[in-house]
Amino acid sequence: MSRNLPDRGAETNLRRDSAVSSPTTSAVPALEAREVSKTFAGEVRALDRVSLTVAKSETVVLVGESGCGKTTLLRLFNHLETPTEGRVFLHGKPIDESDPIPLRRHLGYVQQEGGLLPHWTVQRNVTLVPNLLGWSAERCRSRATELLGLVGLPIAEYGARYPRELSGGQRQRVAFARAVAADPEVILLDEPFGALDALTRLELQNEFLRLKGELEKTFLLVTHDLTEAFRLADRIAVMRGGELLRIATGEELREHPGDPYVERLLTLAGVFHG
Amino acid sequence: MVEVDRRRLRATAAALATTICLFAAAVPLSAETIVVGSKNFAESRFLGETFAQLLEARTDLEVERSLGLAGTEFCFEALRTGAIDIYPEYTGTGLVTILRREPLTSSPEALRAVRSEFLERWNQHWLGPLGFENAYEIAIPRSLAEERGIRTISELSLIAPELRASFGYEFLERPDGLPGLEETYGLRFKSVQGMQEALKYQAAGAGQIDVLDVYTTDGRLLVNDLVVLEDDRDFFPPYEAVPLVNGETLAEHPEIGTTLALLAGALDGETMRQINLRLQEAKESEIVVAHDLLRSLGLLEGTGAVEPGPGGLGGGIEIGAILRLTLEHLALSIGALALGVLIAVPLGLALVSRRRAAEGVIRVVGISQTIPSLALLGFLIPLLGVGVLPTIVALWLYSLFPILRNTYSGVRDADSQAVQAATALGMTESQVLRRVRLPLAVPTIMAGVRTAGVITVGTATLAAFIGAGGLGEPIIAGVQLLDTRRILSGAIPAALLALGVDATLGLLERVLKPRGLEA
Description:
Chain A is α/β, with parallel strands linked by helices.
């Protein structure tokens, strides 16, 4: 990843700018990272003093090349990673002060290629979290019926199937249904459409937008696809080399890329026309 | 709960119950039972069988046979630990191999020496000598002897550097065997190799070896045209054959002493040579030959002892006996395998969260695989005696490694996407282990169990060396007597058993493997 590093001073200013331009509602943000850094095994600095807030019911998309730290940042929020410095908050409460197990059960999570349990049926996969939470079998079943209907995989036809009997797109739908099963307020998505062919991806993106409208949830989504980011996001956070370069709405980014790297990225993606 | 449905659990429970029943059936020993042992060559087996038949005919005792134990050490340890009560031993062997004393040249002196010391140290009784000696001797083909004019071992030592020698494994090690012989006569052969007794005679007959150790009473000396060389320096100590009995057993059942006294002086060297010929060359069963001897001595008069059926396990091969041995073999194998699974699977699971220790533990268990099986059995005898227990322990040790290794790697490397998702959605570490990693590792674990199953069935033939029965009995007896039919009568069922066990475990794998995993 050889490239011309932008001037550090300018970058810091930009980060301050973005912090200022983020919506400053009086309400507590759903997610907040405050000056977090993460160093792996004393070597790679995966995150470098990143600050980010996601408001309730907002959809923020983290975008950047692979290795830029976007997935690490996402994984801080469900305690799969712990920051080396700085703190992370969920609904204003520091994450390091709560037990990670119940925390995770109250966060939706979708990963690339779904991560469905291959030895469980679709229905059982969907109700994984409700099951952990001790819901009754009956309640689990009616929830699965509702959710599988919502993602277009009627339980009568798909409930008893195993993941390997589904297409890639269907598996991601199940994974999405599973993520929202226990009705979490916040859903984290790590490259949810990354492994799908172009047509299926488009279809699922539309589906996502529909569900997003229906569900009124907070989404933090990671992708390396800028077009996807522009389609799905309320705000886009551009990351590079462990730093958050810019966070803004699509509109703002198009009008003021504000950073040569962001500008080049937008041009390459065909969403910015100078 | 592990992720298996009830139907699968029931199937597993049924399999386990069957195992335990088979296992229990394999160890039937009552208090009034005495066990007769023998070493693993024809004469010793025959003497053991003779003791057993005589005791059955003239006392009320139940007699178990544990014939063909793998050599002096195995027999003596078995007697000392109470695994057997009686076996035929030779005075010279007692003196030199067991007591590690200098050989004595006079027979009465040797008997007095072993009698008093065995009594004092282990409360073991040397009863009345049977009447013949069976010493080690050195033999060469008649043609070689005549060509080079050799009559004594001293003369042999002059041309030894040109000759290829082959000796029994025990002879190679015993102080009254090759080491002492080399020292006394300054012998140096061109080559020395260890060989199974029966094969040795065959090799000498075929001209592949020039020198071998033989027993005085061996009938094959006549058949293979071998000449015994004179021990002109009186190196070989006297070897009188004597029943050696555990003192506690004798105190409890004095009739053993009075009954076996009937055999004192009853077998001279010539009779024994003829008997050995019948056993070794005519391949008659020791059961039949022992019965003939006892009847000719008039010792079965008025006892109602029945003529043994044609063959028994000897010349003819009896389906019933093979079935019994197959069942024993299966019980030993499945018992050991079940124990292996019970220990290795939980151990493998425990290691997954202790990865630093894991490699070390797996390597140590791996070393157990490299211990030669006979060495392992020899090591276990002082601790566990002979019979079913040490056999199960040895087989269990061999079964551990494949199961442990596969459990560990299968669970550790289980579908990382699924594991990550399960963790991210709030499963605890132990929930991930039981609900995700373990079920996903079932195919890998079962592959390890199948490997262990085949190893166990194969290795269980060794059970015969320490008197635990099984299909190794006809195989080992067949090798000792060079009887191919007898070898095959054990080897073929053993091979079929291995295939059957593998197929059954394959079925079990299909039952246990979670649906949804690739076929």
